[in-house]
Amino acid sequence: GVGPNSLKFNVENVHLNADDMRDRDFIIKKPDNIIRIAGLGDSYTFGSGIKNVNDTYLKVLERELNSLNSLKIYEVLNFGIPGKDTEDELEIFEEKVLKYDPDIIMIGYVLNDFKNVDSNLKLSKKHITIVPFFGFWLGNILYSYTIFEIKMNRVIENIGLKMSTTEITLKEFESSINKEYNRELFKKIGDIAEERNIKVVLIIFPIIYNFDNYPFLEINSFIEEVGMENNFYLIDILDSYKEYEESVLIVNKYDLHPNELGHKIIAEAISEMFINNNII
After folding, report:
1. From residue 100, how far is each of 27, 43, 81, 193 by CA, in Å?
2. Strand runs (DSSP E) across the chain, as ranges?
3. What are the tens digits of pLDDT across the range 226-267?
4. 238 — phi, psi (to 5°)?
5. How many CA atoms lie within 13 Å of 9's alpha carbon, on the beta-carbon side?
6. β-strand 199-205 against 233-236: which pairing, if any?
7. 107 with 89: CB under 8 angstroms?
8. Measured between alpha carbons, how far is 118 from 45 in angstroms, rounded to an integer?
9. For residues 104 and 37, is the Cβ–Cβ distance under 8 A?
10. 199 - beta bridge partners?
11. Greater pLDDT, 177 or 126
C-alpha cells in the first residue's frame, strides 16, 4: 500500500543512491576542488512530503552556495533518514559520512530526536493504534483511516485517558538521566569532528505548532547550550518560521513536516549564517 503508514510512503517514487541516501551518487574520494557538506537528520532532512528532492533544503542550499562562489564547488550530501534520532545519527556519521571526507556536517535536529533512556519514566504511548492488530495495515491502504486514528488520539487526550505528545516530550526532557545521555551523544559527535577537523553546524527545527505560545522553548535552549559546549555553529529556525502563518509552512493539516516553502526558508537561513560566520 501507499497510505501514510506504509513503509513505501516516504520512498515511493523517491530515488535512493548506492549508499541508500536520498541523493545522487557521489565519488567517495573527495576531489581536490570540492567542499563537502554532509546533512544528518531525520524525516525533515530526508524531505518527507517533498516530491522533488531538489526542493529539499539541502539541495536548495547546494544551489545557493554554488551560485555565490564561482571559485569553489560545493557538494551537499543528504544522509537524512526518517525516524532517526541523535544516537542513530552518531552511528551514521561514523559508518557512512566519514568515508566521504566532509568539510562540514550539519545536524538537522527535531525536538523528538531527544533520546529517552530513563526507565523510571512512566509515560503513555505517543500514539495509540485504534484498531488492534489491523490498524497498521489499514493505515497502509487508507488515508481516511489514518485521519480517523489521528482524530481519535486527540479525543483520547482531551478526555484525559492519555498524555499528549507535547506533554510526553516535555516529561522526557525533564529527566536529568535523559539530558546527560543526550549531552554525551553530541559530545561524541563533537570529539570525532574535532579530531578530523570537521566543522559542525547544529540546526534546530521547530515543531510547526502554536508559534504564538510555543511550548518547547526550554528544549531549544538546552540544545543550544549543548551546541555551544561543543563549539558547534548554531541556527534556530524558529525565529525565521515565526514570520509566517503555520498553515503555509506544512505539507498539509495532517502532516506537519515543512513543505517546499519551509525548506526554502531553512536553506536561506543556513546560507546567511555560513556567510556571516565565514564558514564557506
Report:
1. 8, 22, 17, 13
2. 34-40, 73-78, 104-110, 199-205, 233-236, 250-252, 255-258
3. 999 999 999 999 999 999 999 999 998 878 899 999 999 999
4. -55, -45
5. 19
6. parallel
7. yes
8. 27
9. yes
10. 104
11. 177
Reported as a single tens digit per residue, the pLDDT across 82-128 is 889 999 999 999 999 999 999 999 999 998 899 999 999 888 777 78
CA-CA-CA-CA torsion sign (17, 23, 28, 32): positive
**Average pLDDT over the chain, rounded to whole?**
90
Q: What pLDDT was estimated at residue 6? A: 54
The separation between CA 142 and the C-alpha centre of its own chain, rounded to angstroms, equals: 26
Evaluate if residue 159 carries a pLDDT over 90. no
Mean pLDDT of 45-49: 92
Q: Half-sphere exposure (CA, 13 Å, Cβ side) for 138?
A: 13
pLDDT at position 1: 46
Residues 6+ apart with CB under 8 A from 146: 3, 4, 5, 139, 254
Please state, in angstroms and rounded to a whole number, the distance separating the CA atoms of residues 48 and 205.
14
Any bridge partners for residue 269, and if so which?
none
CB atoms within 10 A of CB 245: 9
